[in-house]
Amino acid sequence: MTATTTSARSELSELGRSETALRTFLHGLPGVDQVGAEQRAAQLGTRSIKTTAKAQAIDLAIRMVDLTTLEGADTPGKVRALAAKALRPDPADPSCPHVGAVCVYPAMVPYVAEVLRGSGVHLASVATAFPSGQAPLEIKLADTRAAVAAGADEIDMVINRGAFLAGRYKEVYDEIVATKEASGDAHLKVILETGELATYDNVRRASWLAMLAGGDFIKTSTGKVPITATLPVTLVMLEAVRDFREATGRQVGVKPAGGIKTTKDAIKYLVLVNETVGTDWLDPDWFRFGASSLLNDLLMQRTKLTTGTYSGPDYFTLD
């Protein structure tokens, strides 16, 4: 890290001390060219990936999946089965890689931990009054500590969008800092719920706010609102993590979640990553897909490439 980067990182770390400093910095970020961002994302979405490169992209995408179930009807049996699938997505093909993580509610963490222990597959849990984020801070922190104590090594927290949209940036900053502390050694993914932020400028500001407060990942969505991950929003977030690393020397991951259902979708995101931030982020440590149905399509396309036969949608288990 250069002396200039060290100085910049030190200066940025001081921003959280006052509301005024945070507001001045966040509103001083360059505005997002909406038309340019949408055109750029659409252009990259037309890139064609074939043969060997496609096979490599599919395996990478499988390794980047956070296999997720976040339903009120989740049961110990269901999440154990999901964890088993995460370890061996295609039981008939041992060369198929495992996924990046399994993501569940805190109450389901102990059952997933039984299956994943020592496997290398991460155990993520949503916390902080997911999906609304509308709960007293002490309850959010207790939620986080309980998930970590039960075995989660990644926490997906939600920001208080009401506070953010009202301009109470320090309140949001302080909650992220406190959640990061409550997470201990677990990685913290900060969910921005971009579908509720209304503008790309707000997405950029929320991305920087989450990173300044210590988030290890920034994540688009809970999957519980109508507008979830989109390519233009993810482009804005990728530009933010690129610029943040340039300013501070610290790399932060990105996780689009919700609405990514097909191999074609996933490959569009991988192209976006490669062209925006480069190969450093083409790794499950730095890029993930929050998805429930994506994995099956990746597996079907993988089978087609390796065997020449396209398996039907009922060939793999439904999650």
UniProtKB/TrEMBL annotation:
<dbReference type="InterPro" id="IPR013785">
    <property type="entry name" value="Aldolase_TIM"/>
</dbReference>
<dbReference type="GO" id="GO:0009264">
    <property type="term" value="P:deoxyribonucleotide catabolic process"/>
</dbReference>
<dbReference type="InterPro" id="IPR011343">
    <property type="entry name" value="DeoC"/>
</dbReference>
<dbReference type="GO" id="GO:0005737">
    <property type="term" value="C:cytoplasm"/>
</dbReference>
<comment type="similarity">
    <text>Belongs to the DeoC/FbaB aldolase family. DeoC type 2 subfamily.</text>
</comment>
<dbReference type="GO" id="GO:0016052">
    <property type="term" value="P:carbohydrate catabolic process"/>
</dbReference>
<dbReference type="InterPro" id="IPR002915">
    <property type="entry name" value="DeoC/FbaB/LacD_aldolase"/>
</dbReference>
<comment type="pathway">
    <text>Carbohydrate degradation; 2-deoxy-D-ribose 1-phosphate degradation; D-glyceraldehyde 3-phosphate and acetaldehyde from 2-deoxy-alpha-D-ribose 1-phosphate: step 2/2.</text>
</comment>
<keyword id="KW-0456">Lyase</keyword>
<dbReference type="GO" id="GO:0004139">
    <property type="term" value="F:deoxyribose-phosphate aldolase activity"/>
</dbReference>
<keyword id="KW-0704">Schiff base</keyword>
<protein>
    <recommendedName>
        <fullName>Deoxyribose-phosphate aldolase</fullName>
        <ecNumber>4.1.2.4</ecNumber>
    </recommendedName>
</protein>
<dbReference type="Pfam" id="PF01791">
    <property type="entry name" value="DeoC"/>
</dbReference>
